Amino acid sequence: MRILVNGNWQEHGGALSVAELIGKLALDERRLAVELNEKILPRAKYGQTPLADQDRLEIVTLVGGG
Question: Per the CB 3.0–4.6 Å rule, which of 7, 35, 36, 49 could disulfide with 58?
């Protein structure tokens, strides 16, 4: 499966959910926002949302500080 993540194409074998992709990328899902095919995806749906070939994701990491 080929998906676009933050402007870069990635190849992944087999079925993959948004939560599984986040885990593969070693990101903390509590500190990010995900847009899937130009729609904001609620965090509660990350594990239930399968990715498909040619999907487009934007993953934004939240950073705190002052």
Answer: 35
